[in-house]
Design goal:
Layout (H helix, E strand, L loop, with lengths): L2 H25 L14 E7 H5 L2 H12 L3 E7 L1 H9 L5 E4 L2 H10 L2 E16 L13 H11 L3 E3 L5 H13 L8 E3 L4 H11 L3 E4 H7 L6 E4 L6 E9 L9 H12 L1 H9 L2 H4 L5 E2 L12
Parallel strand pairs: 1-2, 1-3, 5-6
Antiparallel strand pairs: 3-9, 4-7, 4-8, 4-9, 4-10
Helix pairs in contact: 6-7
């Protein structure tokens, strides 16, 4: 069995583990409510590690729980795993950032709708010296080509997350099949990937919010930003109660409505401003946008 097979097997085992956790959580209804999931007080949210690692959920969820009868149980995984949980009806709501995969899930009927909540951007980060000269380019794909040509170390999330999917698109645009000792697939979340890149003096693709939060602990800097291909929209998807009767339809609808409400959008727009000097996310009502055509 080759390295790729080993990695696929490991990811499969990880996904099965999270799927078991989510299914058990969905089944753990209060006494007397086992047959009426729409009355369940817990809303199971599968979300990306970037939203969790940035601290945004800690700012958003308490007001929702204080103002509604619902509690949010969060499963923070890569977007690919989060969408797979939705595909099996194991969660109620998904907050993700992989537009193409999200649309495929919507078209499958596993989710009932998809709404833009916010956006930020990906950034290419690396050692301060920028040995591959990635910062000399304007396009991320060109920077990636330069990293590969120099054989400079690059740490990939390697976990089918939205960040990983965008990274693979950039390698394709660069005309590079990443492989060899310089290319390391971590198979972990954004925070851990950045820590590994820092330890190894490597490049990585990161979402700006998580990088800003962890920057004091990293020996990395942003070497490239601003390419339209690095746009990073986040959508909320409500899992279909028609296909999966055990979904907490009322709780999911309440959470989606809360995320799109003007007050919540204002919280998103303010998040990070005081501590980092700029907001870490752009709310949909404040200029968040869809990805470039073809995404």
């Amino acid at each position: 069995m080759g390295k790729a097979d080993d990695e696929d097997g490991r990811r499969g085992r990880t996904l099965r583990g999270w799927l078991r956790v989510a299914l058990l959580a969905a089944a753990a209804l209060p006494a007397g409510e086992c047959g009426r999931a729409q009355h369940r007080q817990d809303v199971i949210l599968a979300t990306t590690t970037s939203v969790q690692d940035s601290g945004l959920l800690e700012a958003l969820l308490p007001p929702f729980e204080a103002g509604t009868p619902y509690r949010v149980k969060t499963i923070a995984v890569g977007t690919g795993q989060a969408l797979e949980l939705a595909r099996h009806g194991a969660v109620d709501v998904v907050l993700a950032h992989a537009p193409k995969a999200e649309m495929e899930l919507l078209e499958s009927g596993a989710v009932a709708d998809r709404e833009l909540v916010m956006s930020n951007e990906f950034v290419v980060v690396g050692p301060a010296a920028d040995p591959a000269g990635a910062g000399q380019h304007r396009r991320a794909a060109d920077a990636f080509a330069g990293i590969a040509a120099a054989g400079a170390p690059f740490v990939s999330r390697g976990d089918a997350s939205g960040t990983h999917q965008r990274e693979l698109e950039l390698w394709q645009q660069a005309g590079v099949e990443p492989q060899g000792a310089w290319y390391q697939q971590a198979g972990v979340g954004m925070g851990q990937t950045l820590s590994l890149a820092s330890e190894r003096g490597a490049y990585a693709l990161a979402d700006r919010a998580t990088f800003a939060v962890l920057l004091p602990h990293l020996r990395l800097r942003i070497v490239l930003e601003g390419d339209p291909e690095l746009q990073n929209p986040y959508h909320v998807l409500r899992v279909s109660a028609r296909r999966f009767p055990r979904v907490n339809a009322a709780g999911a609808a309440a959470l989606v409505a809360y995320l799109l409400a003007p007050e919540t959008q204002a919280r998103i727009g303010a998040f990070g401003r005081e501590r980092y000097g700029q907001p870490l996310f752009v709310p949909a009502m404040g200029g968040g946008s869809e990805p470039p055509p073809g995404r």
